[in-house]
Amino acid sequence: MKKITKAIIPAAGFGTRFLPQTKAMPKEMLPIIDKPIIQYVVEEAVSAGITDIIIVTGMHKRSLEDHFDNNMELEARLRETGKVELAEQIHQIGEMANFIYVRQKGTYGNGTPILNASHLIGDEPFLVLWADDFVVGDVPRAKQLVEAYEKLQKPVITLIEAPKEDISKYGVVDIAEQIDDARPRATLPVRYLHHARKRVCDKRFQLSRCDQHFSIHTVPSIFILFPQSFTAQGRARK
Q1: pTM of the complete model beyond 0.85
Q2: What is the spatial distance between Cα 177 and Cα 169, in angstroms, rounded to a whole number?
Q3: Which of 161, 162, 146 is nearest to 208 (CA)?
Q4: How many structural domains does the chain have?
Q5: Which of its termini does the chain have fewer beta carbons within 10 Å around, N or C?
Q6: 1 domain residue, yes or no
Q7: How far apart are CA 64 and CA 68, in angstroms?
């Protein structure tokens, strides 16, 4: 069994749903209290055993690289003023993982950034997660997916329920077999569908349960893929 050690974080979008706030600030850098969203996402990936973080960016996302870089001047200033604990906290941000940055080429939705990072993946299964959804749980969702992969040895996605009027905004799935509520199961085989139920792939994935009551509707922004997905995505682009 190959261990999952790499994660791709697509982060090249313009964040138009958050304008005008994202006119000059990447949406991934929007703060939750004192920490940007993307740091929460990286911490979640690291908690699942990820050591290499591949962030696919654009020309307007330089602040993402700066955030995960060491700032020796700032750290020195904090130490000089007696804020040693804060200086160490700032330093550890860049030490959480190995950070690799790739510029996105093309504008073909969620598949493009994954393809752009394919040369860094090799023949290993990998985690993909976005900084669009903020999810809190006793066990981080990334860790739940990795545990499901280790048990099933298959690609894994998660599902959440969304209002019917919002279905066209998300990726949706078609469950490959009947759900029996009387006998809840941890995983179900599914067919992955794209926006507005336009089928782009008919491979059998495994569905990981996020909680005790879940829907079969939409795919939140995290999943585990195999390298074979690069070939499938390449065909879909032609």
Answers
A1: no
A2: 24
A3: 146
A4: 1
A5: C
A6: no
A7: 7
